[in-house]
Amino acid sequence: MKKNQSFSSLMRTLRTENRRGFLVLSGNQIWCHARAAEILSSLKADQRSYWISQHAPRQVLSVEHIQPNKIKALLGNDAEHLVFDAWEGFSPDTLAVASGALCGGGLLILLVPDLAAWEFFEDPDYERFTALRPTPYRMSGYFIARSCRFFASLPLAYKDHWPSEGLLLVSEDEYPQGFDFPAFDGVMTNKHGTVKGSFLPTDDQQKVIKGIDALSRLPSAALFVEADRGRGKSVALGLSIQSLLKSTEFSIAVVAPLASNVANLFAMIAVNEFDRSRLNYFAVDELLSRDPKKSFGTPHLDILLIDEAAAIPLPVLSDLSQLAPRVVFATTLIGYEGSGRGFTLRFKDRLRHQFEQIFDFRLNHAIRWSDYDPLEQLLNKFLVLDAATQKSTAVNSTGDGRYDTRKVTAKQLLCDERLLRGVFSLLMQAHYQTRPSDLRQLLDAPYLKLWITEYKHGHFSEVVGVLLCCDEGGFNEDDKCVHLITSGQRRPRGNLLSQLLSQRSGQTMWCQYRSLRVMRIAIEEPHRRSGLASDLISTMETYLTDNHYHYWGTSFGYHKDLLSFWNRFNIYVVNLGLHRDKASGLHSMQLIKPVLSLLVEPSKQAFRHFVADLMEYKKSYLTDLCRLDIALLVGSCAHNYQPQNYANRQHDTEQLNRFLLDQITFDQVYPALKRIRSASNNTSLHTDENDFYLTDTAVLTSFTVDNAPQWRMIAEHFCLSGRREVIQAIKTELILQTRSK
Question: Does the domain formed by 203-363 have CATH 3.40.50.300?
Answer without folding.
Answer: yes
